[in-house]
Amino acid sequence: MKIDKKLAGLACAAGAAVLLAGCATGPSANLDAEFKAMLQNSFSARGIAKMDRLDQDLGQAACSSAKQPPEAVLKQIEGEALASIKWPTGGQYFGDWTRADKLAQSGVGMAWNNPTTDPKTNGGQCYNCHQIDKKEISFGTIGPSLYNYGKLRGVKDVTDPKVAPIIQYTWGKLYNSKAYAGCSNMPRFGHAKILDEEQMRDLMSLLLDPRSPVNQ
Amino acid sequence: MKHPITLTALAALALTGATAAWAQKTASDGIAEYRELLADGNPAELFEVKGEELWKKARGPKNASLEKCDLGKGPGVVKGAWAELPRYFADTGRVQDLESRLLTCMETLQGFKAAEIAKLDFGKGEMANVTALSTWISGQSKGFGFNLPQNHALERKMYALGEKAFFYRGGPMDFSCASCHGEEGKRIRLQDLPVLYKNPGDGLGMAAWPAYRVSNGQMWGMQQRLSDCYRLQRFPNPDFASDVTIALQTYMGVNQKGAKIITPALKR
Amino acid sequence: MADPMRIRAQVAGDKATVRVLMSHEMETGQRKDSSGKAIPAWFIQEVTVAHNGAPVMTAQWGPSVSKNPFMQCAIKGAKAGDKVTVSWTDNKGDKRTDEATVS
Q: Is B31 on the interface with A (CB under 8 A)?
């Protein structure tokens, strides 16, 4: 093993761009394998957090670097994500925004110390990253402000066909954020079963209902 | 007398300068002020005292102290050692961070069983002692700048592996370290987030742990901080002092070369 | 006996500023453990500060004081070399006394 690396090193030093391409795959493929082995040796399943959480799908793998993946890969991630979206049963996009604040405030769920993966007790942890209601000053800035979300998008009546695209986009973003930005930092709440349909409907109302405090 | 005059001058300054500032003060600023006030009387000092005692006391099946423990700068040299960890150790043939090195010394010098200590929950039994020792030892590097060695091939390898770990997305929420610590000027709720793929500056990131957490009254070493990060990333649990935790500290520590260490610090 | 306090006492003009860090759980009695049972209250009830043996301050504390409490006070007329003694008693009858020299 040692000797091969040395040879590869010599080849890289002596060569030009052509050889460099070859070198890029050699040692880096080794590092990849070592890295995967390190993960397996370092982590242990605990509670509801099993080792399969270390497995990556296309999007997770492609977005695991400081650089954005190539345009074509991004498009593929977004396409697959869009296709995975389950639109709400019976076309019913909305729920109860009075229940949604609790959801937006709570960050509970999916960690090894939580008792179950059932979304019923999970929160959306929305305030960790977003401003939502003007009253709540303890909000994060990892995501854009959602204050006046529906108002700013001209949503006066959620049943108006003219605003159907924004309704759909919002549901889609909650269900699988990567459909619209392949390397988005936002979790895929529906796709990963972090939240169920009823919870997402409540959040839809929080954001889009003209009577919601968010749109005052 | 000297003091009354100085106080009046300061008060005058405060009045004139503050009126404009008051109007702009954000919630974050208010909390930063509160934390500064708390900084005097950091309960971490109680753990520092404990840690120093544990270093000097003869304990364990071999009834020996840790005073001959080599933390990388030679046996018994504690001052400045934390600023150069993780690093390669010839006697174990691996790159080790402070807490894994303490386990090595507790086993070889004192006769404790490292593997058993590693299985304990944070805050319990000998694990609590490891935390107290880390608190004191990190305090002995207060004011130093990070200066991790990268001379050995394994040290450079750990850096590369740490970089991969930093950006690795996984778990049901697709979180990597970079999800929170990868962009300038971001915060979770009202907690500012240091950018950790580069040097976030003095007293931030690696430079601020071990720290006493006011919110739960607990003293946390670097291992506990990383372990809890992974819990919130919804990953499975990293084993105590496992390679991924050492690789990440190597990556962050090298990135923070020169950053001033303020440990043991005080956190929310 | 409980873990030691950290006491620092420094002269500043005609007073000495005394800063004390106490090691104590300060359990309010309201917290519940994982089985839902209330964790029994356990907190410092009285703190006294003495200067060269003479008591100069007594404080009555309750469960609202935080874990590992920090206290600061100023003793008028204290000089370098004087002895400052801090004592506390908790609701279980446990006590702790520590001493420092004014610097």
A: no
